[in-house]
Design a protein that fits this description.
- The chain is of the alpha/beta class.
- The chain has 11 helices and 8 strands.
- The chain has an 8-stranded parallel barrel with strand order 1-2-3-4-5-6-7-8, surrounded by 5 helices.
- Strand 6, helix 9 and strand 7 form a beta-alpha-beta unit.
- Helix 1 packs across helix 11.
- It is globular and about 45 Å long.
- The structure holds 2-phosphoglycolic acid (PGA).
- 2-phosphoglycolic acid binds next to strand 8.
Length: 250
């Protein structure tokens, strides 16, 4: 069984990384995290501190990156600007980026292509809104989001997908393990149909994941980990989740 993956998404929150990692490490106590890959997606201005404070085994990710390497894009950040910080990769196409900053499916694909080309890990987020789910459009929305990624996903590189139903993000209304598994299985089949070996790309679930629902989610055969927003802001809660995830390896 592969290691589970747990990625914190701190979003636009002001945290003190040193205090966070002190509390996280203290909460872990003697627990071994050898069976789980842990990552932290931090705001740009906290990336250097997070990388310096986080134990080396943990990955640090940006939350977004521009699809070009440089140019007249006021206020944007590119890979050449991030690379001196020695981070592992970036979230790409989070639903908040798509919804509030109008990122298109093609733009997200370009971000992934550049991310892989420059040797970094891309965690691409996909998922439907409540209106789309209620209209029975979940799989057509996912098809539209995944299709431009296909030629890139087939190339070699560190790539992770995160299924994050928009209606479950920050709402406290997590998808049930059955609902999440249904979509995860569909995504793996969709990828397989397009020549990508089943389970070649790890698939995280995101949307109100916490220490109370994580175990049931991770028990599902096609859920390889979680992308965690709100619950990751509390280091003690996130440490609890890490311990739960690590237990799956044993
Ligand atoms: P949430 O956020 O855990 O607060 O729902 C998840 C995410 O947006 O990645």
């Amino acid at each position: 069984m592969a290691d589970k993956i747990l990625v914190a998404n701190w979003k636009m929150n002001l945290l003190e990384p040193q205090a966070y990692f002190n509390a996280f490490t203290a909460a872990l106590g003697q627990s071994s995290l050898s069976g789980v890959k842990i990552g932290f997606a931090a705001p740009y201005t906290l990336l250097a501190t997070a990388r310096a404070c986080a134990p080396a085994a943990y990955a640090v990710y940006a939350q977004n990156v521009h699809e070009r390497e440089s140019g007249a894009f006021t206020g944007e950040i590119s890979w050449p600007l991030l690379e001196p910080l020695a981070i592992s990769g970036s979230l790409l196409g989070h639903s908040e980026r798509r919804q509030f900053f109008h990122e298109t499916h093609d733009q997200v694909a370009q971000k992934l292509a550049l991310t892989l080309q420059r040797g970094h890990c891309g965690i691409v987020c996909i998922g439907e809104t409540l209106a789309q789910r209620e209209a029975g459009e979940t799989f057509s929305v996912l098809t539209a989001q995944l299709t431009p990624l296909l030629p890139i996903l087939t190339s070699t590189g560190a790539c992770i997908l995160a299924y994050e139903p928009v209606w479950a993000i920050g709402t406290g209304l997590s998808a049930t393990p059955t609902q999440a598994q249904e979509v995860h299985a569909w995504i793996q089949s969709f990828l397989e149909t397009h020549g990508i070996r089943r389970n070649a790309i790890p698939l995280l679930y995101g949307g109100s994941a916490n220490s109370a629902n994580l175990e049931a989610l991770l028990q599902q055969p096609d859920i390889d980990g979680a992308l965690v927003g709100g619950a990751s802001l509390q280091p003690v809660e996130f440490a609890k989740m890490a311990t739960i995830a690590a237990a799956f390896r044993k």
